[in-house]
Write a structure and sequence with these properties.
single chain; alpha/beta; globular; Rossmann fold; six-stranded parallel sheet; two-stranded antiparallel sheet; 4 helices; about 25% helix
């Protein structure tokens, strides 16, 4: 599977770009999955629901399934941060996996940068960031893409990954 990341600081527009890229690659008939890095205490379950009660009782993993979808929740009891490579192994095979976040991992990435003061570029110290998607001009020796040009950003990723 081809893996490409979208990274940047909070509220930079990463998720909005991810949504647009998923739609664009799907329109090109590619199968796409996503992995999103979340903060430590996130929860996708709801208190009082059966699955929540199963986890609260101590289940290591809980699968919730219906005719339309299923989800696996895994409790990371040892508090060791799971690596991207381990998460990728859990996905079904697709043409492209778009990864949001995971700044420290070594896959190729685009950094999303909005016109904001006093925000250091992650790309300055990260060789895995091969381009910026931005709404401003930045003085850096990396490819700069128009953040609002979804097709252009998708073309860049597709060309880079030889999709």
């Amino acid at each position: 599977m081809k893996v490409f990341g979208i990274t940047g600081w909070k509220n930079s527009g990463k998720t909005h770009l991810m949504e647009r890229l998923v739609k664009e690659f799907k329109s090109r008939n590619f199968s796409v999955s996503t992995i999103k890095n979340a903060h430590h205490g996130f929860d996708v379950d709801q208190p009082g629901k059966d699955s929540f009660r199963h986890r609260q009782a101590g289940a290591q993993e809980v699968i919730v399934a219906s005719s339309k979808r299923w989800v696996l929740m895994h409790e990371n009891n040892d508090d060791e941060k799971i690596r991207l490579k381990d998460l990728l192994k859990k996905l079904s095979k697709v043409d492209l996996v778009l990864v949001e976040g995971f700044k420290q991992e070594r896959h190729p990435k685009i950094e999303v940068v909005r016109q904001v003061k006093d925000q250091r570029l992650i790309a300055e110290n990260d060789q895995t960031i091969i381009a910026l998607a931005t709404d401003t001009n930045i003085n850096i020796n990396k490819t700069q893409l128009n953040l609002n040009d979804t097709i252009g950003v998708a073309d860049f990723i597709g060309n880079y990954l030889e999709l």
